[in-house]
Automatic annotation (TrEMBL), chains A, B:
<dbReference type="GO" id="GO:0048786">
    <property type="term" value="C:presynaptic active zone"/>
</dbReference>
<dbReference type="GO" id="GO:0009449">
    <property type="term" value="P:gamma-aminobutyric acid biosynthetic process"/>
</dbReference>
<keyword id="KW-0663">Pyridoxal phosphate</keyword>
<protein>
    <submittedName>
        <fullName>Glutamate decarboxylase 1 isoform X2</fullName>
    </submittedName>
</protein>
<dbReference type="InterPro" id="IPR002129">
    <property type="entry name" value="PyrdxlP-dep_de-COase"/>
</dbReference>
<dbReference type="InterPro" id="IPR015424">
    <property type="entry name" value="PyrdxlP-dep_Trfase"/>
</dbReference>
<comment type="subunit">
    <text>Homodimer.</text>
</comment>
<feature type="modified residue" description="N6-(pyridoxal phosphate)lysine">
    <location>
        <position position="310"/>
    </location>
</feature>
<keyword id="KW-0210">Decarboxylase</keyword>
<dbReference type="GO" id="GO:0005737">
    <property type="term" value="C:cytoplasm"/>
</dbReference>
<dbReference type="GO" id="GO:0004351">
    <property type="term" value="F:glutamate decarboxylase activity"/>
</dbReference>
<comment type="similarity">
    <text>Belongs to the group II decarboxylase family.</text>
</comment>
<dbReference type="GO" id="GO:0030170">
    <property type="term" value="F:pyridoxal phosphate binding"/>
</dbReference>
<keyword id="KW-0456">Lyase</keyword>
<dbReference type="InterPro" id="IPR015421">
    <property type="entry name" value="PyrdxlP-dep_Trfase_major"/>
</dbReference>
<dbReference type="InterPro" id="IPR021115">
    <property type="entry name" value="Pyridoxal-P_BS"/>
</dbReference>
<dbReference type="Pfam" id="PF00282">
    <property type="entry name" value="Pyridoxal_deC"/>
</dbReference>
Length: 507, 507
């Protein structure tokens, strides 16, 4: 019964025990990885919070005063994976981030072994340079010239979007850094009704206020209507407010819609506003020669959010904020802490990039992406994106052919999002109206609950605007094949049929 | 010459190739881990940015269009580690975060294999519950009652401190979330001259403005002077401003000083101000029965930052913001995005904690800490802290005995920070004054540059207030022994002697 602190490194002669322990751990982890890709294995083994809290089959979450032994720790590791969710499973459709890229995983293992911090070159020489190389490449793909472009990797797309608002505010009102918002006029931001909630969240955090985010109307397809944007800007100006920032979305969260970037860029130019493009989800399409046309105009953005942990399949987290104007990140955020960013170091301290960020310590999120890029090449990412969009088109075609499903919008998907309702038999001939909506609204949550209990697939749902609860299927996992898409539809139809029959009988 | 995308999972029959690839990777990683603990190995193999940029011995950072083969990827992994810094080495004294806890590392490997997101219970059931258990335990250790306490793990101590300011502002002025700072009076924050720069950074980001952070004077030992705090508060009020928040530091970055928490809490109570305790660095001492007395009064804080990735040795990143008032995090940050936080789910959605945060997706930072806690028990963390502080005392004693070193402050270290100058022979008999200071200021950077080139140890330096550049040694790595402390002193003395002789000769 070995105790970790006495037997593992740094204990003297701890090398062998450490290696043996890791060998057993690696067996557990790799067997989980292999299982994640097998269609015969479940996506999840669902338990309610109180069940897990009480301890299942001896799996106790409580923290002890005394050390446990190595065997118990390995059992805990096995249990942790057992009761979790296999986000890499080909039938996990629940999130924009899915899949388990094994090279990305290898990158994460190395990153955690290196266990260092992105703030200075002296402790992260290689990773700092990899970040520079990756950011430059992404800027080039966005279409910025060699003289333009700066950026930083940060903890998620919401943070990247927050950076964009922070930078825009500083660009127009640099005094905000020292004097705060009370020195400024009432600022107004614009974003579409279908955009991500992080724009409002950023306004709340930054002290601008969520009410100062004007929500611009979208068309049926979820795209911002440029004329609506323009009239909103004029209205805000007429009210004595100061518009300064527009967020356009390239790949909305639910519909996967692309805002018309060029038309929006024209409006931003004529009013002198900062154009941010939230391509957290859609950015991956830039890697595909077939699909990058959907982001035409992105090169006119002043800043871009792009999450390789979504469509490019990098492990969580991996999100970049790209900024066109060089030096702005540093001017906006630097505080010149002398204990960290000494100016009398013996190397080129422009590589101490930590002072450009709103963090101090920063996790290394770049290595996994760098290694994946080496493993796939730019072209490999392109094929991966194409495949995901083919799956979406396959699902769209199938749905079009079935009487028991209804599409939320009739046009072909632009991204890999496909939105649809399952229509139970009793609703198929019911005329549209509040009663049908009321009943349809309950269908998706019921099917999802049952699906999670059975554990063979996972998909998300939500209401949106005047649309009651519908399923949103998204594809970002290259392991998913058309057979998995077919399986999902059959699963929904069969669960839906059962549940609805039961409800009818109960009535 | 295997190509990753054709041969690894999810490729059909990719299981064996995947396992073989990981086996080779694990050999590389474990050999690095073992080397990190060996005193005969170098801490780093320094190269300037332009040297790494140009490619060393075939190590190219450039991103290809076409895939590389698996052998090349393994070579890249080896090179990445080779040119990095061994932050787990017993002679790496450069950062508050050091060491390589192998159980923590195992936790990170599992975390990245699980590759999921902390926003909802449905995709992170086990990790969400582990976060709850850890936060509850930490709140209990801080000294809050069972009815109090909330919190969240977030990407680093600067973010945790930003949360504290955000929450304090919302607590007093909830309208700020929707209306922004323009609806508010001029708010003032207080923090000590020795506190971390993140308080000013937070004020800048949140739109309060860095000039509205009042820097309170410290005594010689780097502790905030309560009378100075009180008079600053009164002055601010007299000027028509609204004080609302005080940051007290438990373990300052450079001196490792503890602010007098009870005295500060008294002042906050009498003026009705939010008391935050930044225990990012000092929080670990709460685990030690010997040293937790230094944080007396922390239970009176309204919020606490505590970074287990510092003194408790958890891998990067692992930082918690603890909040006394339950529900505040949610009220302040929630945006109720319906695609993620549906209220008609079939489980208890109070476990969908993502809406409490300022992020959307959030990295799993809890598992490594949970596993380490199982491996060490609370008592194991206590012993680890005690050992680090014994090393600091050993260094302090040694410095006291030597004529070639001078302590920055004469009293025994409270935390594991020890601050000192190396005094070259030519300065030993020079009277204090500007000329001596000018020359002394150049000593530490020169020694550090030479030390990094030789690569056998790493230590930080900085100026502070009227003190010219001095070394700050910190201990958070349980692998460090007193022999390493002795080695460091000899190394500094020998490099310092050589350098100074050379300078004298040049003159």
């Amino acid at each position: 019964m070995l105790k970790p602190d006495y037997d593992l490194l740094p204990a003297l002669s701890g090398e062998d025990t450490t290696k043996d322990f890791f060998q057993e751990l690696v067996n557990i982890l790799l067997s989980y990885v292999c299982k994640s890709f097998r269609r015969s294995s479940k996506v999840l083994d669902f338990h309610h919070p109180h069940q897990l809290r009480e301890g299942l089959e001896g799996f106790s979450l409580e923290l002890p005063d005394q050390p446990e032994n190595l065997e118990q720790l390995l059992v805990d590791c096995r249990d942790t994976l057992k009761y979790g969710v296999k986000t890499g499973h080909p039938r996990f459709f629940n999130q924009l981030s899915s899949g388990l890229d094994v090279i990305g995983l290898a990158g994460e293992w190395l990153t955690s072994t290196a266990n260092t911090n992105m703030f200075t070159y002296e402790v992260s020489p290689v990773f700092i340079l990899m970040e520079e190389v990756l950011l430059r490449k992404m800027q080039e793909i966005v279409g910025w010239s060699e003289e333009e472009g700066d950026g930083v990797f940060c903890p998620g797309g919401t943070m990247s979007n927050l950076y964009s608002v922070l930078l825009a505010r500083y660009h127009f009102f640099p005094e905000v850094k020292t004097k705060g918002m009370t020195a400024l006029p009432r600022l107004i931001l614009f974003t579409s009704a279908h955009s991500h909630y992080s724009v409002k969240k950023s306004a709340a955090v930054l002290g601008i206020g969520s009410e100062n985010v004007v929500v611009v109307k979208c068309n049926d397809r979820g795209k911002m209507i440029p004329a609506e944007l323009e009239s909103s800007i004029i209205t805000a100006k007429d009210q004595g407010c100061v518009p300064f920032y527009v967020n356009a979305t390239a790949g909305t969260t639910v519909y996967g819609a692309f805002d018309p970037l060029n038309a929006i860029a024209d409006i931003c130019e004529s009013h002198g506003l900062w154009l941010h493009v939230d391509a957290a989800w859609g950015g991956g399409l830039l890697m595909s020669n077939l699909h990058r046309v959907k982001l035409q105009g992105i090169e006119r953005a002043w800043s871009v959010t792009w999450n390789p942990h979504k469509m490019m399949g990098a492990p969580l987290q991996c999100s970049a904020i790209l900024v066109k104007k060089r030096g702005l990140l540093k001017d906006c955020n630097q505080m010149c802490a002398e204990y960290l960013f000494q100016t009398d170091k013996h190397y080129d301290t422009s590589y101490d990039t930590g002072d450009k960020t709103i963090q101090c310590g920063r996790h290394v999120d770049v290595f996994k992406l760098w290694l994946m890029w080496k493993a796939k090449g730019s072209e490999g990412f392109g094929s991966q994106v194409n495949k995901c969009l083919e799956n979406a088109e396959h699902l769209f075609d199938k749905l079009n052919q079935r009487p028991d499903f209804e599409l939320v919008f009739k046009s072909k998907p632009e991204h890999s999002n496909v939105c649809f309702w399952y229509i139970p038999p009793s609703l198929r001939n019911m005329p549209p109206g509040p009663e049908r909506n009321r009943r349809l609204h309950e269908v998706a949550p019921k099917i999802k609950a049952k699906m999670m209990e059975q554990g063979m697939a996972m998909i998300g749902y939500q209401p949106l605007g005047d649309k009651v609860n519908f399923f949103r299927c998204v594809f970002s996992n290259p392991a998913t094949q058309t057979e998995d898409v077919d399986y999902l539809l059959e699963e929904i139809a069969s669960l839906g049929h059962d549940i609805c029959i039961r409800i009818e009988t109960d009535l």
